[in-house]
Amino acid sequence: MIIARPTPGFAFSHPAHAIALGFGAGLSPFAPGTVGTLVAWPLGWYASSVMPPALLAAAMAPLFVLGIWACALTGRHLGVADHRAMVWDEIVAFLLVLAIVPRTFAWQLAAFVLFRFFDIAKPPPIRALERRYHGGFGVMFDDLLAAGYTLLVLAAAKRLLA
Hints:
By secondary structure, this protein is mainly alpha-helical. It has one domain. It is 73% helix and 0% strand. It has eight helices and no strands. Helix 4 runs antiparallel to helix 5 and helix 7 runs antiparallel to helix 8.
């Protein structure tokens, strides 16, 4: 059975669903991936004010593994392996980006725009790898690659502007 649009009842019926759906952010009827990324922004801003960047970046590893489990289970329950309502992948990947980029509005806004671009456009090899890897790992991995592209572009920009 394929669930076209999960409900709040579904989202909070199992811990994996709550996590995968970004604690409700993925229920947005419009651009849930963008909403999930927007949820990550203040979380990353706060976290970067209370912990060093290296610790924040390292904290993404267990969140990534948690996402593999949550997205795999939720995708099976929704009947779609990478349902658009699952936004934990955007949250974790963008938190990783925020752990690395400068803590200024301009850099973080640029990171947000670039991350959303790469997540939506899926330039090579992201789309090919997304087709190759399935389940929870596939859901999480393509956003990790989008985060990597974002960081590469921002590093190049920083080098050019310095």
